[in-house]
Structure formats: C-alpha cells, structure tokens
Amino acid sequence: MAKAVLKVVFTTKDGGTLPVSYNLYDQNPVVDRWISMTKQSLEKEMEIKARITNNEMNNIGYLMEQINGVLVFINENYDKVLPTFTDFNQLDSVILNYLHEEFEVYGDRITELQTKEKWSYELHDKFLSLNEFIHMIETAIHGSHHKFPNFSCLYDFLPAGLHEPVTEIDKLFLEDRFEWGGLYCGYNTLGKDYLSIAPENDWEVIARDEVRPQIRFAPETWMNFGPDMTNTIRESFYSWYLSLSPEVQSKVPIDDMHKLSLGRYKLGRIIIDDSMLAIESDVSKWFTPSGPSVAWALGNESCKTKWNREVFSQVNGIKEIKIYE
C-alpha cells in the first residue's frame, strides 16, 4: 500500500482546534489492516472515544476528585466497595494496582452481573473511566519523577468490535523503543501484559497467571508524546526479571520473545507542523532525542516538553479524524 497520512483534529479548551498529522509507514501489514479498519469506522460515522493524558502533578488534586467521583458511583451500584481517597499521598502504586486488578475482575464478571441483573451501561462506563483515571494518575506521577510531561492520547471508535488477530509476521513490527511523536496500535486487551507489569513492579499478576499478551489489534490508536527512549524495553525488562523470585521467574517465558510480546505495533511518525515550528524553528531539534535518559542532548527542557506544556496541555477532545492516501 502507498504511504498514507493520518490527521487528527483536536478540540482545545479555548474553543479552537489543533490538527496533528502523521506519516504512516508503508510495507507494513499491521498498518494496512489498521487503515482498513479505521476507514470502515469513519465511513460508519462511529463515535470517537478519546482518553487524553495531559495533566502533570500540579493537577493531581483534580485527578483525585475525578477518580473519587467515579468510585462513589461504582460503590453505589456495584456489589463490592472500592476505596476512595482523602489525600493525594494515598495515590501510590499499591492502591492503583489494586484498583486496576478490580477493574480486571469486573471485566471477567460482566456476564455474571448481567445474569444477576446487576450490570448497566452506566456502571460499565464508570469502570472504563476508572481504568482511564488510574493510567492518568500513574502517568502524572511518573512524569514528575522524570521531569518530562509524559502526555499521550489513546482513541478508539464506539461501538467497539472491529479487530484483527496478531500474526507471527506482524511481530516483526513490534516496537520496544518508543519515541515522542510516535504512533502505535493500542493494547486493545482487558488486563495487563508484560510491558505494563514491569514498570509498575506488579509481579503478582504473573504469580496469579493473569498476564494477557496482546493477541489482536483494532482501530484503537496510541499517540505518544512521552520522552524518547534510548534503551529498549527488553533491556529494562531483563533487569527487572532478575529481581523476581525464582517462583515468579519460572512463569515468565524469558526465552520466547513472541510470547513476551514486549512492545506496541508501530504505525507512523508525527509530521512537524506550524504549532511546533512556532516553538522551535530548527527542525533538526524535533528529531533530536529528548527525555531523562538523553538530557545531555537538549537538557531536561526541550522543544518537545515546551510543546507538551504550552500546546498539547490545552486539548480536551477529538473533533475529527481523516486518512489521506
């Protein structure tokens, strides 16, 4: 398939718009099928659902209020009470991992709850929101540690349903060194894979035999504006693996990269546009790695961190998505 361009038009808090475009990779079977599914979704005028992560620790109070509101609704309509928060210092990896585990439990119980007439679309939507706020809070915390606003957007089309199985050939295009401005397939799976378990040290998921590697992809798309990675995830994952107990290590297919599935499937790379050139006119600097592991190149502050804070922090939704071929 010939090279194509993806254009995502965001809405902003001041009532304006922000277009962000990507060159999509050619000679990539994942991209070809992703384009086909995206075009089908657009032709059917399906609803666009976006999870925009553009808050830092200075907004942690707002995020705590939002997740508490979701938890209050769940506790009033679910058969199990989940913890709420009175202080942002309570928002640590232990409690966030617990809430994510409860989100997975809920997913496995949907049929049971429907049979008992304890399920509703409102409850389902609140659990999806819970998962979103967990990730937003984790991102804000990690971003403060690394001094880089780890922003992103994950979007999908509703009602969900279109998907393609991951083939062995597709795994040639699994990327494990993420970059600012990279475009990737979403995880599209309820649960956690090895990629998300290791950074959060959530080894109990492995102990419970609940690891869920990605076996399919959909029009769900991850727009990454986090720091550029210089090392591969494989290297950090192996260091983490060595820290595990022998019992947990025995459950990890460390000698099978296909089963580990460490990464996300790459789709394209951002096109440097006027909103970026207004911040830094030297195009080469947009292609210079930026992040905590490469602070020697541009320092902790760079054109990418500035664009994140001044531009992407203002987006609040998606107006439209287009593909040009």
Task: List the defining traits of the structure above.
single chain; 325 residues; alpha+beta; Cyclophilin; 2 domains; nine-stranded antiparallel beta sheet; 14 helices; 11 strands
What do you see in this structure?
By secondary structure, the protein is of the alpha+beta class. It has two domains: about 1-55 and about 150-325, Cyclophilin, CATH 2.40.100; about 55-150, no CATH class. Helices cover about 40% and strands about 20% of the residues. It is built from 14 helices and eleven strands. The strands form two sheets. Strands 1, 2, 3, 4, 6, 7, 9, 10 and 11 form a nine-stranded antiparallel beta sheet that branches.
Structural class: alpha+beta
The biggest sheet amounts to: 9 strands, antiparallel
What is the number of strand segments? 11
Low-confidence stretches: none
| Helix coverage percent | 25-40%
Order of helices and strands: EEHEHHHHEEEEHHEEHHHEHHHHE
Mean pLDDT: 91
Distance linking N and C termini: 9 Å
How many domains comprise the coordinates? 2
Helix tally? 14
